[in-house]
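S.,

As promised, the MTE run. Input:
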Amino acid sequence: MGNNRQIIQYRRRFLQSAGLGLLGLAGMSGKIRAAAMQTLPFGNGERELVVYPQKRSLLRITTRPPHLETPFEVFDESVLTPNDGFFVRYHLADLPLSIDPDRYRLTVSGHVDTPLSLSLNALKAMGRVEMVAVNQCAGNSRGYSSPRVFGAQLGNGSMGNARWAGIPLRSILEKAGIRSGARLVAMNGLDRPVLPVTPDYVKTLEIEHAMSDEPLIAWEMNGQEIPFLNGYPVKLIVPGYFGTYWIKHLCEIHVLDHPLDGLDSFAMNRAYRVPDNECFCVLPGTVPDRTRPITRFRVRSFITSLQNGSRLKAGQKILLKGIAFDGGSGIKQVEISSDGGRNWEMAVLGRDFGRFSFREWRLDFVPENQGEVMLMVRATANSGETQPMTASWNPGGYLRNVVESVAITVA
Ligand SMILES: Nc1nc2c(c(=O)[nH]1)N[C@H]1C(S)=C(S)[C@@H](COP(=O)(O)O)O[C@H]1N2
Ligand SMILES: [Mo]
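Predicted complex:
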């Protein structure tokens, strides 16, 4: 895939840009001019707000490679997460800083009849479908694992919901012609391994999944081109599946008749694995005997209109708001409890943007008794899946979906 990449040395550019603030970020298309590092204090000081091209202030998790979380208030703004507020996650420090849309090619190779090399215009000429879908990092909420686990200590902001436009992955695979015996479809992006320390980032989908209606090759996010850091010019959307599969700067699709092996298999065979049992969990602190790749989201819900420490007046009605989502059956109901889970009140669901989207919910709520109150939110999906009252544990800190609570004070 060497010829369709235009990389400017990251380190030099990055150092040069330090101190430039936001200068030169306007009018950017397909280009990172500067990774501006305007830092601001945040909360208890453990996380800083940083500004990157095309992004509002986001929470810095790591700088090389960039890993930025969405401040949770953003989810209260709208059911579609604004592009400039959408989280960013990279594994490889050698990421492209500039991509020429005229030179970009998406190649399809391997176990196919006709290998392809498609320009951006050729892709766009193949059609256009839209889908609203949540992207959630597998490590979202990992920081709440107890006992603590290795890896980035993420809060709840490594997720976002957007309207994606592009073509089904299937259309491209059909165009190339899948040969019989094909088992997996491997996806790679323009970012490169930093060898020998960091292997390339390659993910595979089972052929049946790749040929289903679900995965999309998208070039548009909320009606605009995809922000550079979210995968410009083309990103793989895998609705209901964790972000680890949503390859950014997608440039290579390789059809395999055998499992992925060697160094390239790191992100499938070594990382992003969960215990291979029904709860995807083990006793805290222990190691699973067998693991398998993480796949779909579990059902989750959040209160977005209040934070820990919010103060309310007893007897005064407020509108409680939040979001819920699952791995693709859609949300059936959302309930709220203010008495530790003994009684639950049914929230009203908002507009339905499709079964892979955040579903808004609201509830008129009157706090009655003064003091500290725990508000809990619990969603149930159309599949019947609901959220447990106690968290299970796995060594990756993946798949958190316990009932979340917000501690408020009623005065
Ligand atoms: N090319 C490329 N694609 C990638 C990754 C990466 O490191 N490189 N990280 C994945 C992971 S783990 C996540 S959570 C999502 C994050 O998508 P976003 O940065 O657009 O929010 O991108 C995925 N796609
Ligand atoms: Mo991720």
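The pocket of MTE (ligand 1) is lined by residues 86-92, 135, 137, 189, 191, 201, 230-231, 243-244, 246-249 (CB under 6 Å). The longest helix spans residues 10-17.

- D.
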